[in-house]
Write a structure and sequence with these properties.
0% of the residues are buried. The N and C termini lie far apart (77 Å). The protein has helices at 3-8, 10-26, 28-64. The chain contains three helices and no strands. With 66 residues, the protein is mostly helical.
Length: 66
């Protein structure tokens, strides 16, 4: 069977949709965990970058005698 024939087969389409629903509900926790982890890493990166920029500004200010 070719892919085009499979896509038009109602039995295949129903099995595919059922499997998609099962996987979506079974691994929903994984998607939420990854999203939360990415958010935390983004916040950590922003904090580190701000600390580096503030440190550079302080050193520059001390060097200029302000």
């Amino acid at each position: 069977m070719t892919l085009a024939e499979l896509m038009h087969d109602p039995d295949y389409s129903a099995r595919l949709q059922a499997a998609n629903r099962q996987v979506s509900t079974e691994y929903a926790w994984y998607a939420r965990f990854v999203f939360a982890l990415q958010t935390l890493l983004l916040l950590l990166l922003a904090w580190v970058c701000s600390q580096v920029l503030l440190g550079m500004g302080r050193r520059e200010a001390l060097r200029d005698g302000r």
